[in-house]
Design brief:
Elements lengths: L3 H24 L23 E15 L5 E8 L4 E8 H6 L9 E11 L2 E11 L2 E4 L18
Parallel strand pairs: 3-5
Antiparallel strand pairs: 1-2, 1-4, 2-3, 4-5, 5-6
Length: about 150
């Protein structure tokens, strides 16, 4: 038989667990594509002052799990001088726009240069492959998948 003190302790534990769960959902990896201000990707801030265009060949395609089934699509692109990680956005958004990428694709990428794990990376705004342009973010870097009226249409 449970005592009143035992019931109170159980109720308190449930509230604590619920609070921890909600805190984890609000700031955890499920929201890695939207962490921080609009334009962030994988915790990297899109900065329109560091926008550049590069052309190269895709050497690797990576689907990065961000939690809750969300997969980010990253490309490793070899230019004449370097290999650069290109962070596109949610795989579902990219494929929903009719795009797919594979090793060997020649691409032109416009985006914000950042550092990712100490290596050069680009948070992509636009990617052109086979003459087709995929627009991922508006001019300020706001993700098109984030919704209509906020860069989404």
């Amino acid at each position: 038989m449970t005592t009143p003190a035992g019931r109170q302790k159980g109720a308190l534990m449930r509230r604590i667990m619920l609070g921890l769960l909600l805190a984890g959902l609000a700031g955890g990896p499920a929201h890695a594509q939207r962490r921080g201000p609009p334009g962030d990707c994988c915790g990297q801030r899109f900065d329109d002052k560091t926008v550049e265009t590069l052309t190269g060949q895709v050497t690797h395609v990576d689907r990065v799990e961000h939690g809750s089934g969300i997969k980010g699509l990253h490309l490793l692109v070899k230019t004449g001088q370097e290999s650069v990680l290109v962070m596109l956005g949610p795989e579902g958004y990219v494929s929903g726009q009719g795009f797919s990428f594979k090793a060997g694709d020649k691409v032109t990428v416009e985006g914000s240069r950042v550092q990712w794990a100490g290596k050069p990376a680009i948070v992509a705004r636009e990617v052109t492959v086979s003459g087709k342009k995929l627009v991922l973010r508006d001019k300020s870097g706001f993700p098109r998948w984030a919704g209509r009226g906020r860069g989404g249409s």
